[in-house]
Structures are given as structure tokens and as C-alpha cells.
Amino acid sequence: MRVLITGMGGQLGTLVARRVEARADVDTVVGVDLDPPRRRLHRATFHWIRPGDTDTLDEVVRSLDPTVVLHLGQFEPHARLVPQRADVASRRATESLVTALADAPSLRRIVVRSGIEVYGRRRGGPICPDESCPPDPTSQFGRRLLATEQHIEVFARSRRRVAVTTLRFAPIAGYHAPSPLSRLLKLPVVPVATLAEPTFSLVHAADAADAVVAALDARAEGPVNVVAPGVVSAYQAARIGARVPVPVLGPGWTLAGRLSEFAGAPLPDHVRELIVRGRTADGGRCAQVLGCAPTRSTRDIVTEIHEQTVVEFLDIAGGYAA
Amino acid sequence: MSASTARLVVVEEPDETPDDGLVDTLRRRVTGAYDLDPWGLDDDVTRLAGKVASLRWSAAVVGIEHVPVDGPALLVANRRLGWSEPAVVASAVLRETGRVVRPVGGVGFDPVAGILRRLGVVPASADEVSATLRAGNVVLVPTRREPVRSRPGHLPIDLVAAGLSADAPLVPVAVIGWEFGRHWTVRIGEPVILARPARARRSGTVDPRAVGEAAVAVSAALDELIGRGPERDLKDRVRSLMPAPGRSRT
Predict the structure, then answer these.
(1) Which are the contacts of B246, defined by CB distance < 8 A and separation ≥ 6?
(2) CB–CB of B31 and A129 under 8 A?
(3) What's the DSSP call for residue B191?
(4) Position B100 in a domain
(5) What is the ipTM of this complex?
(6) CATH level 3 topology of A2-178+201-228+282-294
(7) Which domain holds residue B141?
(8) Is residue B140 part of a domain?
(9) Domain contains B21
(10) N or C end of chain A: smaller count of CB under 10 Å?
């Protein structure tokens, strides 16, 4: 099996790469991204390629001739890039990948990173949608993810023997995962909805990586929701970390967004939507189709976000340096 | 209902649900350690509301053994005006079994919607009902409003189909009482058993004929439950207290 991983420099991409290169049935692992991997990789080869650089990616694909592509190169707004750049980078990454895959005759499977943001949170829409609910995104990130899903789907239809598994993740979080929601929850004061207490689900980055690797072997096609068990509200998420929840109403969200951005935690529209309207999905199909399900609950993930790592300084004067 | 019958059937069972003190509840609220589910059900608030409801309504329950101890169930109940019935059934089942019933209804806008969701109300859509049942909940679907007491009212067919799609047993429930009165009777019938499989063998989708059969069977069961007299309740009550054949009471 020859595996091409886009977005290898992100937290999810790096975790997936480490798992993939540990498998005996994988001959070659090649990754591309605009940032280098976050951990040391032993067998994988990394190519620094800017999204949209079709020529370089074309060369990589032609020399590798991948049998499996893990398309994780989707950029959440305000995670690594500002929203506009994240949207452009996600679009270009998908477009250049699809163009380059025309030269991959051995390709058999594509696993796409998507998110439950594609279901949207329109008033009257489903609260806990499953995979059969039609996508109806109501945020920029959701629309981008849906466009990526459709782009890959159109490509796969033109190639008979290529199967596509689309993993719709709940917001990926964890102690090390760069996430606008995690940054917001770490502020000393957290804005929450006033009139209701909508709930949301998360998924841990390690569980998300396990799901991607499980999708290598899964025979099922189509979308699969990957959602951690349990839900929390923004109020609960703030209080778990002993933060002060501040109820915000209507136009107050504009001010809350400005203040949180000033404090170092910008509030993109999909995170605001998550806090005001909630965001969860039915992840029951994940265990059936992939044979694995997230083990860490949403509450555990929020607790992990708030945990502070103790930094132990080396006592150089005491002889450690020697 | 005669006074003697009412005295016999209104037996307050001991509340077996774990009930910690007010201090623990307040501590959970402050630390955020209370439980919510995806539809917003707040366990603390629901159990508190159950206690308040027991001050307002006194329900005599017959056939509580037909509500599953765990796993999903779709209760289909009649209603006249429809204000008290969901609360009467939910509080009675909570008191008798400790299980929280999720009534289906229009939740409207916040803040009313937020309060109703905390109490367990699920939006009246087939997708939500199906998802709630798949999560293992007991969902209460009321029939359309029917002012004539002897009629059960029209069944919401789409919600019955949602119940079948989630493989939940359909349990007819007759709710009898006066809207502004305190004393009510809740008669829970046996789960409806269909002659044909609910799902089509090849596609796995719900068979429309099975939905029709289920609707007819539930309506008939509701008719029978609403129409029967209190003497039958007494017999059922006595029968439920007797040991099952071939099994000794412990």
C-alpha cells in the first residue's frame, strides 16, 4: 500500500502519519503540507508544498503512484490560518490534489477529512443529524468542507474503481491541537448563550487519527460521523476549567468577538454558531462501518483542554547539562 | 372513577431513583458537572420538575410493566386539550420506573424552547424522534387533540414510522382525567406486535404497510384502553401483583 497524506503538518496529519507508518502493510508514506510535521516521523517522506502548487504535487503523485490518499489538508479558520487564507488554502489544496490524481492509475481509495459543520445549524434543522440528513452548512467552514466533499465525489465518479470515505468529524480538540474553540475556552472569561444552553460534541485528535487509519481498511463508502460520546454546553465547558461564563445576547456577540480576538482567541463564525446554537451529530455509524469509535468523551476532552502542563526546568547548575 | 377504586390504585411507590441533596445539586450547577444530552435534557431539572408535577397531578398508573426497563420505547398517548397529558405521563413514568420520558412537541423559540428542552421535550420531527429513540430514550408521542373523551385522536403517522425505523416497541397509553383536575388515570397497554416485519428485507427501510398496520393496532389499543372501566384496572392491578406462572415471588 502506498499512502499519500495531504495536510501532514497539522496535528491530525502528523498523528495519522505516525499510525500509518507503523503498519506493516504500508510500503511507502508520503506527505505534503505548508508546515512540517509536528512530530518526528521515521519512514514517512515529507514534501513542503504550498496549497495550489499543482506542478510540484503532480511530480510527487506521479513518482509515488499512490493506492490510498488521505486528504486531510483542510484548514479550520483561525486554527492555523486566518479565515480567508484558510478558505483559499483548503480550496486550492483540494483542486491541486484532484488535478494531480489524474496521474495516479493505481489509486483505489480516498479518505476525506470533513466535519459535522456541513449539517449547519439552521433554525428548525436537525439537532443530532445522522449521515442520512442532507448537508445544509450555515458557516464558512461548513460550506468549504461540503465543497471539498463534492469536489472529491465528482472526481471519484469519473474513476470507476476509486472508493471515497468521508469522515465528518466533530470539532477536533485536545491539549496540543490548534483549535479556535480551545483557545476561547482557555480565556479567563468565556462568552456563553443567554437564553438557552445548547450543547456541542468534540472529538479528540488521537481518536480522529484512529478513525482515519481505520478508514483505510473499511469497505464502506460515503459519509461517516466521528463524534465523541457525550455533550457539554459552553457554560459547562467554561466551568470545568473554572472560567467565568458571561451570558451574551444578540449584538453583544460582535463585541464579544472583538474582545476575545484582542485577548488572543478569535471567534470565527462556526465557533460562534457552536456556542449559540450547539453542534452535535449521531456517531452511531462510525463503530459499525469503521470498527472503531472515539473513546474519550467530550467532557474528558474539555478537561484536557483546561489542564495545564507543568514545565520542569533543568537544573543546569546542578550538573544536568554536563 | 369511584372513590374506592381510586384509593386502591393510587399507591405511591417508593422513589428508587438516586436523590442527593440540594447542596450536591447546587455544586453540580456551579462546577458544570451536571448531565445534558444532545437535545438539551437536564437531568437535575427534570427530576426537580417531576417532584413539582407530583404536587400538581396525582396519577394512578396501570400497566407500568409494559414500559421497558431500559432501551428505547415509543409511547403513543391520547390527548384532549393536550396541556396536562404529557406532564402527567412523564411524571408518572418517572415516579414508577425512574426513566425520563421525552414528550414530543413544538418547542418554539428561546427562552421557552430552552426550558422545554431542559425538561426533555423533543422537536416534533421524524428525524429527531428517530435519533432520540436510537439513543435509547423513552419518547412520548401524543395524538392530535380530540375533545371527545371516548376517541383517541389521529395518530401522527410520520412519528410512528420513526419509531419503527428505530426498532422501538410501540406502547399505547391512555390518559384519562380533567384538564384542571388533580386526579388522573394512566393506562399503559401491551406493546403492539406486528404481523409483518417493520422493515423491508432488501432495502432495510420501513415498510409503509407495517406503518399502517402499526397505526391501526395502536388506535385500536387506545380505544380499548380509554373505553374500559375501572373494574378492569383493578383486575390488572391485582394480576400484576400475583406471581407469574411457574415462578415464585421473592
Answers:
(1) none
(2) no
(3) P
(4) yes
(5) 0.79
(6) Rossmann fold (3.40.50)
(7) 35-240
(8) yes
(9) no
(10) C
Which one of A127, A132, A239 makes the best mutation probe of the B interface by having the most chain B beta carbons within 10 Å? A127
Compare CB distances from B134 to A126, A201, A282 and report the shortest one's residue.
A282
Mutate to test the interface with B, among A119, A128, A243, A279 (most CBs of B within 10 A): A128
Using an 8 Å Cβ cutoff, are A72 and A125 in contact? no
- Which residues in chain B touch residue A126, judged by CB atoms under 8 angstroms apart? 125, 127-128, 131
User: Are residues A98 and A152 in contact, defined by beta-carbon separation less than 8 angstroms?
Assistant: yes
Q: Do B111 and A236 touch (CB under 8 A)?
A: no
Distance CA A236, CA A144 (A): 29
Average pLDDT (A42-49) is: 92
- Residues 170-229 on B with a CB inside 8 Å of A are none
| Residue A321 pLDDT greater than 60, yes or no | no
Are the Cβ atoms of A231 and B36 closer than 8 angstroms?
yes
How would residue B13 be classed by pLDDT, with cut points 50, 70 and 90? very low
Domain ranges of chain A: 2-178+201-228+282-294
Instruction: Give the mean model confidence (pLDDT) for residues B174-185.
Output: 88
Q: What is the mean pLDDT of residues B81-106?
A: 88
Residue B23 domain-assigned (yes or no):
no
**pLDDT of A52 above 90:** no
B118 touches chain A (CB under 8 A): yes
User: What domain count does chain B have?
Assistant: 1
Q: How many pairs of residues across A and B have Cβ atoms under 8 Å apart?
A: 67
Q: How many CB atoms lie within 10 A of CB A30?
A: 20
In this model, does residue B9 exceed pLDDT 60?
no
Please give the DSSP secondary-structure letter assigned to residue A119. G
> Sign (positive/negative) of CA torsion B205, B122, B52, A235?
positive
B36 and A133 within 8 Å at the Cβ level: the answer is no
Nearest to A89 by CA among A77, A102, A101: A77
B37 and A231 within 8 Å at the Cβ level: the answer is: yes
Residues of A contacting chain B (CB within 8 angstroms):
124, 126-130, 133, 195-199, 201, 231-233, 235-240, 278, 280, 282, 284
Task: Check pLDDT > 80 for residue B236.
Answer: no
For the cut 90, the answer to whether the pLDDT of residue A236 exceeds it is yes
Top pLDDT among A220 and A13 is at A13
